[in-house]
Amino acid sequence: QVQLVEAGGGLAQPGGSLKLSCAASGFAFHNYYMGWARQAPGKGLEWVSGLYSDGSDTSYGDSVKGRFTISRDNAKNTVYLQMNSLKPEDTAVYYCQASTWWGQGTQVTVSS
């Protein structure tokens, strides 16, 4: 069955960095557009970033543009989200997404 397993969340200080990963299995990862979304406490789901199957094109939400970088390793069936210059408003549960499949999420908390 399809699995998307996120890792790498945790506590970071404002201005700090974290790198999330999402290990995929059960589908042809190399053929799929992969994305990240997040949900902050009390708020709706917000799309963060995505990239095409060959990694040739990336896109970002306005709130993270210039600070976050998405990448993928098709040999490892893994997509990453490098998060730099973190802000308290980046605090959220971060989800990996492919088509209609979603991971369980990983908590990111940005606080001093």
Short overview:
This protein is mostly beta strands and 112 residues long. Helix content is 0%, strand content 52%. Strand 9 (92-98) and strand 10 form a beta hairpin.
Describe the SSE topology.
Layout: E1 3-7, E2 10-12, E3 18-25, E4 34-39, E5 45-51, E6 58-60, E7 68-73, E8 78-83, E9 92-98, E10 101-102, E11 106-110
Parallel strand pairs: 2-11
Antiparallel strand pairs: 1-3, 3-8, 4-5, 4-9, 5-6, 7-8, 9-10, 9-11
Main structural class? mainly beta
Mean pLDDT: 96
Rg, Cα atoms, Å: 13 Å
* Helical segment count: 0
Order of helices and strands: EEEEEEEEEEE
Strand content bin:
over 45%
What percent of the residues sit in helical stretches (DSSP H or I)? under 10%
Cα shape: globular
Question: How many β-strand stretches?
Answer: 11
What characterizes the major β-sheet? 7 strands, mixed
Distance between the termini: 40 Å
Ranges with pLDDT <50 over ≥5 residues?
Answer: none
